[in-house]
Design goal:
- This protein has 17 helices and 17 strands.
- The protein is of the alpha/beta class.
- The protein folds into five domains: about 35 residues, no CATH class; about 55 residues, no CATH class; about 170 residues, Ribonuclease H-like superfamily/Ribonuclease H (Nucleotidyltransferase, domain 5, 2-Layer Sandwich), CATH 3.30.420.10; about 60 residues, no CATH class; about 80 residues, no CATH class.
- The strands form five sheets. Strands 1, 2, 3, 4, 7 and 8 form a six-stranded mixed sheet that branches.
- β14 and β15 form a beta hairpin.
- α5 packs across α6, α13 crosses α15 and α15 packs across α16.
- The termini are far apart.
- Pfam families: Mu-transpos_C_2.
């Protein structure tokens, strides 16, 4: 057994100075000759060393098979790779008679020495990396999986995080636009993985055929692209690490928000707060180093990129337009006309001849139908019989005063259906006025006993305010020379004398 360091140093000193012979030291210290030789040859205990590896009679014949299995595993997804237990069962089928522990240690050793070694990369100002990650969030009480768009600047270690319903073209474009606005400019070179949103075909290690949507984004902001080799995410390892950091630091515990707008406001605050952190090795905060990053940025263009996916379509006979497997309404005047649907991350905008005719909140579900009841109010005048069965009006929350008005209009009608038509004229006022304002006007009309649509229109018009206009002669001096004679009421008396009085 080796001695402690104090004894080791003392024996070496005595040997150097010749204070005791080797035999005396062996007898006094109770050590073997070989131990004394090691003390003389090594400045500190060298530890136990095996001259030859220990034999493994049971596992040895199967080490080559284990190494081959581990090597082949690198070609398959991580979730379908062999565990040590599975390897143990496979070599047992091949005749292995040993225990599981030996197999587990052999697997650990082989994986350790076969791990890939990466080259540290230099990060220059003005370069960025983009990636998507996923996390859970409770939105409006529902636990949902959300997509996180992340753009990181390796030089300054600044990053931007935004949450979207899913990873798609719209979220990519919107994420870029928001990130560029957050950083105050456009990185001149951005690295990506090989998402189908960006790449339509892989031609070579770094050569790609890009999608039209990505080319439009690139043309707008004028940055250079760089794509990692397939299954080489380490080429953008900074943003890969930021995905993990943001998930663990910004979304733990699981955030509870009313909508994604609230979640994105929270993430934006956290990104700004993170800019105050001191950057290791740079001698300043991230915000200070970002100023150096910005020297290599491309300036923001005058206008923001229209971050949407456009799809030409046609409104059907129900005045509905289909986009992304959902139906959205347009005004009935646009039925059977060509429509361009523009899908943003939060809304769908429908245009006819470049004029916006409808706006709807974006639905990320499937096979939904979304109406704006105001689109169908003109159709009610032509089809008043559909009033009680119109699907676009099924969810319209009308106050009790509207039902009272309808009953009184129907009760006072001179011709069948006239009261219903008048009631529809009142509903059509919702095309230009808010529900709250029309409700107040209807309540005032009921109180005054004036049920006609014209009376309600009058109540909706704002009262005139300010003093009455005064006619001035400024610029009309020629009118000052005109004289107008005063009225002569004796003329009226002459008419009475001639029998002109009305009976």
């Amino acid at each position: 057994m080796y001695t402690d360091m104090d004894q080791w140093a003392r024996i070496r000193l005595e040997l150097r100075d010749g204070q005791a012979s080797k035999r005396e030291l062996m007898r006094r210290e109770g050590i073997h000759w070989d131990t004394l030789q090691k003390i003389q040859n090594f400045p500190e205990p060298p530890g136990y060393r095996l001259s030859t590896p220990r034999a493994k009679p049971k596992l040895g014949p199967y080490l080559e098979l284990i190494a081959r299995i581990i090597k082949e595993d690198k070609k398959v997804p991580k979730k379908q790779r062999h565990t040590a237990t599975r390897i143990y069962h496979r070599i047992k089928e091949a005749g292995y008679q040993g225990k599981y522990t030996q197999v587990k240690e052999a697997v650990r050793a082989i994986k350790r020495v076969s791990q890939e070694v990466y080259m540290p990369l230099v990060h220059r100002p003005g370069e960025a990396q983009v990636d998507f990650g996923y996390a859970l969030a409770k939105v409006s009480g529902e636990l949902r999986k959300i997509a996180l768009f992340i753009m990181a600047l390796p030089y300054s270690d600044a990053f931007f995080v935004a949450a979207f319903d899913k990873e798609c073209s719209e979220s990519y474009w919107e994420g870029h636009a928001r990130a560029f606005e957050f950083f105050g400019g456009v990185p001149h070179r951005i690295s990506y993985d090989n998402s189908k949103v960006l790449v339509s075909k892989i031609i070579g290690p770094h050569e790609r055929k890009l999608t039209d949507g990505f080319l439009k984004l690139q043309s707008h902001y004028l940055f250079r692209e760089h794509f990692c080799r397939v299954r080489r995410p380490n080429e953008k390892g900074v943003v890969e690490g930021v995905v993990k950091y943001a998930r663990q630091n910004f979304l733990v515990p699981v955030p509870q928000v009313k909508d994604l707008a609230e979640l994105n406001a929270m993430l934006l605050r956290q990104c700004r707060d993170d800019m105050k952190r001191r950057l290791r090795g740079k001698g300043g905060s991230k915000a200070e180093v970002l100023q150096e990053d910005q020297t290599a940025f491309v300036p923001l263009p005058p206008s923001r990129f229209d971050a949407c996916r456009k799809q030409p379509t046609r409104a059907n006979s129900l005045s509905l337009v289909r986009f992304d497997d959902n139906d959205y309404s347009v005004p009935v005047a646009c039925a059977h006309h060509e429509i361009v649907a523009k899908g943003y991350v939060d809304r769908v905008v429908l245009c006819h001849h470049d004029v916006v005719v409808a706006r709807h909140s974006r639905s990320w579900g499937k096979e939904g139908v979304f109406f704006d009841y105001r689109h169908y109010l003109p159709l009610l005048e032509r089809k008043p019989g559909s009033l009680d069965h119109a699907r676009p009006l099924a969810d319209l929350d009308l106050s009790e005063c509207f039902e009272v008005l309808r009953r009184r209009l129907v009760a006072g009608e001179d011709m069948p259906g006239q009261g219903t038509r008048k009631y529809i004229k009142v509903l059509r006022l919702l095309e230009d006025h808010s529900m709250a304002r029309l409700k107040r006007a209807v309540e005032q009309a009921l109180y005054a006993g004036a049920y006609a649509p014209e009376a309600i229109v009058h109540l909706l018009e704002p009262p005139s305010s300010g003093p009455a206009a005064t006619f001035l002669l400024d610029g009309r001096e020629h009118l000052g020379r005109v004289s107008v004679a005063g009225p002569d009421i004796t003329v009226y008396d002459s008419l009475l004398a001639q029998g002109g009085a009305l009976s």
